[in-house]
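Hello,

I think I submitted the adenosine-5'-diphosphate job twice by accident. Can you confirm which output corresponds to this input? Input:
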Amino acid sequence: MAKVLKAGILGGGQLGKMLLQQAANYPVETFVLEDDPDCPAAHLCHHFIKGDIQNFDDVYNFGRALDVLTIEIEAVNIEALEKLENEGVKVYPSATALRIIKNKILQKQFYKTSEIPSAEFKVVSNRQDLENYSSFFPAVNKLAEGGYDGKGVQIIRTAADISKGFDAPGVLEKMVEIQKEIAVIVAVDDKKGIVIFPPVEMVFDGHLNLLDYQFSPAEIPEKTLWRIEAIAIKVGKSLNSPGLFAVELFIDTKGDVFVNETAPRVHNSGHHTIEANYSSQYDMLWRILLGYPLGNTASILSSSLVNLIGEEGHTGEVHYEGIEEVLKLENTFIHLYGKKQTKPGRKMGHVTLLGKDRYDLVRNALEVKRLLKVISKPILG
Ligand code: ADP
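Support: Only one job matched these inputs. Its output is below.
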């Protein structure tokens, strides 16, 4: 019988929760490190350890007795992971891969040296620095560290926008004329085996900068698909680490493909794989962490996916409106993350829809957005 391994997850958000839902099928004892004992993952792991994932001692002490460690968020203490790696704990993704990805400057330099196509860029150290590159506009200023869900990204069309730029180290990236945004999940095992999931198409909400809905597999010309697959595999190989990596790419109006960024973990763009693919991204990561063969990434049916985001004007104890109506739609699966408090723009859950016809999938996705609302409990009296 296979040995029951001890596996740790740094972070206890919804990604950790969905990873743990899948862990229940494997011989593994799970540990979560997170500050908030009420986080989505806290009640599904065998052992919850309260602590700061950015603190060296907390991460090191958490990892010491484990066989393997992974992350569900990049903002972790890398020095502690390096020490654990040196002491024989498996860290997937590796501390080196994490270090590259965690910092946008290092990540962009990595694409360049690895000959992976990504928009041209300049390294900037502060807001004033942006003035040196007005010939480079229109461009996108990105914070080196700490940005997420579009919060570390500012478009600089002309010199008049410089005041909106970040007064901190980052990159200034050439603006891509985006035709489509695509994400591909790449899985790499510890024997350098590599598989990729079918690409996903993402459609964004211009207002919140959060994903509006996504569709999978993406509808793209065959040659573009081959290009995207080759690039995603190159990213997976060049990072030189076991793990699961979500590669976000742009197809521009000319049909050229550029990598936007990579996440070294399970990702929002892979939620649909729970129902829509033979092996989900969560299943795949357990196979990698526990040293089992990689799974089958093929999609069983097409899918659309809607994120459930806290409504504007609603802050407080969460209340869901429209669950019954949504579940009446064909092949609809609700995932609520179990966060007790909602606030505008917070990711509170998602809904996956399966089907054969793209038109139906998009129409039903929009219907879900209309029917299902995440609000704060109405105050009575
Ligand atoms: P985050 O990691 O915060 O989600 P991203 O780097 O993915 O930030 O950028 C958020 C969004 O900004 C992208 O999905 C895309 O729509 C837009 N964007 C980012 N970089 C560029 C670029 N070089 N050209 C045009 N649009 C961009």
